[in-house]
Each structure stands twice: as structure tokens, then as C-alpha cells.
Write a structure and sequence with these properties.
single chain; alpha/beta; Nucleotidyltransferase, domain 5; 8 helices; about 40% helix
Length: about 210
């Protein structure tokens, strides 16, 4: 990833950024438990492969300033939002920034629907098989709450979004080939309910079970 294509902003994206009508989104947090851990970083990327990192400041459970531009982007129903494991990122954004509206595409869900020959559906696995790109996960467990992110952290964070458009294109073709486009859309639409369940205490329970 070219460091010159990574742009870091404090608290919000600028007014004049036009990322496009399909946006890849990811988040970095202090941990994986919604009630305990907080949002630190939001990564955005359009098809031009530039990456925008938005540092989010949260003290004592209160966000320092509401990112109005980022919030408006998340609410824009004309924009397709592409995630890998949307369930987690949407819940984090819902808690700290606001609800994510509009069409959602989750590369992890899509992979599970079409790559039924494997149980490896991580971003690293998808990039390796579908794009022939080897991702490093060395910085996955680093401290994202520190004041100044290292160059390695910035590159890692950018890599989590800059390939999602290519995966989106590949997986859409596979969904069409396997006649599972409608099934995928139904799964993506159900993410709103899944996120609400996660945020309200039902993250480890299958409410549809007998």
C-alpha cells in the first residue's frame, strides 16, 4: 500500500471529500466486546484505492465531537457500503456514530454463500485466493487507542478496505453464477436485526433455534 494514498483525519472527514457511490468501510477498536470496548478508527475507501483514516476520540464513554460528515455518509441510502464482517463494524458504528443505512454488502457473508468448498472466510484468505494478494495481519492486535498511529498501523488499517471493491466484484460474479444473489441480499438486509440483537444482549444466542 502506497503511504501517499493514506490520509489521516481527526474526528471527521472533510466537507469536500467525494468518495463515491460504493464505499468500503472498516473499523478498529480497543477490543471485540461492544459494552466494554470503544471505537478508535474508521477506515474508508472508494474505487480510486485512496484510503481515509478517521481517528475517533472517546473519553469516559463519550465521543469528543460528533463526526457529522461521516454520520451523513453512513446514513446516505444511495451509497452501497461494503464491509468484511459487517455484523461487527455496523454494531460499532451504530453505538458510537449512528445507524448505517442503505444497501450493505458483506464480503464474509458472500464468501460463506459461494465458497462452500472451504471454511476459511477471513479477509486474508479471500485476498489470497480471489486476488492473489498476500495480506499481513501483524498489526491486528496492536493498540489502536494511542495518540499517534505508526506507519505500520496505517498501512494495515488501509489494507483492510482498499481490496474490498475488488472482492465485491469477484463475489458478485460468484453469487450470480451460483444463483444466490437474492439469498445474499436477504442476508444483508437481515444485518440490521442481527446488529440490534448484538447490542441488546443476544449476541451469543440463536433466537431462531427450537
Amino acid at each position: 500500500m502506497d503511504k501517499e494514498k493514506i490520509f489521516v483525519f481527526e474526528g471527521d472527514i472533510p466537507d469536500d471529500i467525494a468518495i463515491g457511490k460504493t464505499i468500503a468501510i472498516d473499523t478498529e477498536t480497543t477490543g471485540l466486546i461492544h459494552d466494554r470496548d470503544r471505537l478508535c478508527l474508521v477506515q474508508l475507501s472508494g474505487r480510486n484505492t485512496s484510503c481515509y483514516l478517521v481517528k475517533i476520540r472517546i473519553d469516559n464513554g463519550v465521543i469528543s465531537s460528533q463526526p457529522k460528515n461521516l454520520s451523513a455518509l453512513l446514513k446516505d441510502e444511495s451509497i452501497i457500503k461494503i464491509f468484511h464482517y459487517a455484523r461487527f463494524d455496523m454494531a460499532v458504528l451504530n453505538k458510537w456514530i449512528g445507524k448505517v443505512d442503505g444497501p450493505i454488502f458483506c464480503t464474509k457473508i458472500a464468501s460463506k454463500l459461494v465458497r462452500t468448498y472451504t471454511n476459511r472466510h477471513g479477509l486474508k484468505d479471500l485476498c489470497k485466493e480471489l486476488l492473489n494478494i498476500e495480506l499481513s495481519k501483524e498489526m491486528q492486535s496492536s493498540d489502536w487507542a494511542q495518540d499517534n498511529l505508526s506507519d505500520q498501523q496505517k498501512i494495515y488499517a488501509a489494507q483492510d478496505v482498499i481490496y474490498l471493491h475488488q472482492l465485491y466484484d469477484k463475489l458478485n460474479l460468484m453469487l450470480e453464477r451460483e444463483k444466490r444473489v437474492i439469498l445474499a441480499k436477504k442476508c444483508f438486509e437481515a444485518l440490521d436485526a442481527r446488529v440490534l440483537l448484538d447490542l441488546n444482549g443476544w449476541s451469543n444466542e440463536d433466537i431462531f433455534s427450537h
